[in-house]
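Friendly challenge for the regulars: who can give me the structure tokens for this chain first? No prize, just bragging rights.
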Amino acid sequence: MASIMAFPSAPALALALLAASLLAAGASSGRVDVGDMLMMDRFREWQAAHSRSYPSAAEALRRFEVYRRNAEYIDAANLRGGLTYQLAENEFADLTEEEFLATYTGYYDADRDGADDSVITTSAGPVYGGGDDNNLTCCSDVPASVDWRAKGAVVPPKSQSSTCSSCWAFVTVATIESLTMIKTGNLVSLSEQQLVDCDGYDGGCNLGSYGRAYRWVIENGGLTTEADYPYTARRGPCNRAKSARHAAKITGFGKVPPRSEAALQAAVARQPVAVAIEVGRGMQFYSGGVYSGPCGTRLAHAVTVVGYGVDAASGAKYWIIKNSWGQSWGERGYIRMRRDVGGPGMCGITLDIAYPTL
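First reply, four minutes later:
Bragging rights claimed.
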């Protein structure tokens, strides 16, 4: 019987060639760097844990170098101490910061083109944010802590994935899901894909604004469920039949005055709200604790504030933020961000605050 020769798979071959290149580089310099080989072992373990493979040895080597820089940054930050939060390797460890931001954000500042998202028009006429019993801007008599998750008003975090910059859609849906539960007692997961495909005001997988998205939801008459119109992480033609089926609706939306954490706190005491933030250094690898920077105010990512509180260990006040990077990131898909820092708030969190009304 003829023997059958087994060839390594493409991912295994790429790893073997990568290891060989490290050995060759060490041999040419007269020594093999033990640190390189240990980091290679660590990289292999990370690949196995996250089912990551690459099409060629060249790409594997490039991703190894990115992984090495990220791992060294994570280790150094945690060893340095003095942080109120921790970093850890996660599924994003082979992405540069620039690649990560380009892929996993997607907020568009509508005010740059003069749009006024605080005023919308419905069949009842113009609706101005804060003009009725949904006025969320008053700042007195708010509780010391709020967690809408504990009240059963928050659908668990979802993932926008690496192929669609649609954080704006996830925040729009998250706030409407929570408002619907608060008003009706029914918590249902709504469709982000409906917004990605059908909302003509926004860019689908290429940037968007929750203010514009609220406007579209009102004009459409509501949103259907995620089960009816599931997420595909790419923009396709609008399924108008599904889009016409409404599991939840809103009648308006409003904005909270910027640069006031007291106003944001009063708003969150009433319902989860949409905000935009700058993705600060290290946030890509956040694993727990109260994030306290560094970050600025270049708003690039939309997230949902679902509560606030005080850390029992450190005494640090924080916002509870629901993200759209999956539940393996952060604290099961959430991040706690420092509260009461003044000015625009941590990472610009008070600069663009909006909420749906019903």
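Confidence is low (pLDDT under 50) at residues 1-8, 112-137. The radius of gyration is 23 Å. Your move, everyone else.
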